[in-house]
Amino acid sequence: MSLKSDINSLVKSVDLELYDTSIVNENDETIYRVSVISKEIKDGKRAGVSLDACVELSHLISPLLDVTPPVSGDYRLEVGSPGIERKLVNISQYSMSIGERVSLLLGEKQKVRGVLTKVEGSKIFVETEEEDVEVEFNDVLKAKTYFEW
């Protein structure tokens, strides 16, 4: 099994979903970031992830990384939520963001903004103020969720 699949199993064991893992460098420090989201849906949106859940998950993942380090050299493990505004990179992240507001950049600087209503195969469906839009995943150059105040 791969490190990511092992981490995914641990994430599921605390009733969360793995959103992403990444290695980032900030202030001359290497960080192995594990982003998780809640499985629970409240009022059509995902519930937040508690600090206690992140701490518990960090304690579960840490021994695994002692055996299978994600990078060579020193690093810090960081477990948390990906945030209310986050990039959407793969189709599974779109599926985990159904019901949220999204902003998609397509070719020729065309933008689509609205609520992500569903994902079917490689098709993304967004309800805008004017119409329902169907977009092919491969046609998206950049995408993110956004919060409207």
What does this structure look like?
With 149 residues, the chain is an alpha+beta fold. It starts with a helix and ends with a strand. It has two domains: 3-80, 2-Layer Sandwich (GMP Synthetase, Chain A, domain 3); 91-145, SH3 type barrels, CATH 2.30.30.100. Helix content is 22%, strand content 42%. Strands 9-8-7-6-10 form a five-stranded antiparallel β-sheet. The chain has a three-stranded mixed β-sheet with strand order 1-2-5. It has a two-stranded antiparallel sheet with strand order 3-4. The relative contact order is 0.15. The model has no long low-confidence stretch (mean pLDDT 93). Strand 3 and strand 4 (45-46) form a beta hairpin. The chain has three helices and ten strands; from the N terminus they run αββββαβαβββββ.
Secondary-structure map with pairings?
Blueprint: H1 3-13, E1 16-26, E2 29-38, E3 41-42, E4 45-46, H2 51-67, E5 76-80, H3 91-95, E6 101-106, E7 111-120, E8 123-127, E9 132-136, E10 140-145
Parallel strand pairs: 2-5
Antiparallel strand pairs: 1-2, 3-4, 6-7, 6-10, 7-8, 8-9
Helix pairs in contact: 1-2
Summarize the structure.
The protein is an alpha+beta fold and 149 residues long.
- How is the largest sheet built, in terms of strand order? 9-8-7-6-10
Please work out how many helical segments DSSP would assign.
Answer: 3
Q: Tell me, what's the shape? A: globular
C-alpha termini separation: 43 Å
Biggest sheet character? 5 strands, antiparallel
Give the ordered list of helices and strands. Answer: HEEEEHEHEEEEE
According to DSSP, the number of beta strands is 10
Approximate strand percentage: 35-45%
**Number of structural units classed as domains:** 2
* Helix fraction by DSSP (H/I, runs of at least 4): 10-25%
In terms of structural class, how would the helical and strand content be classed?
Answer: alpha+beta
Q: Which class of the largest domain in CATH terms?
A: Alpha Beta
CATH topology of the largest domain: GMP Synthetase, Chain A, domain 3
Q: CATH architecture of the largest domain, please?
A: 2-Layer Sandwich
Spans where pLDDT lies below 50 across 5 or more residues: none
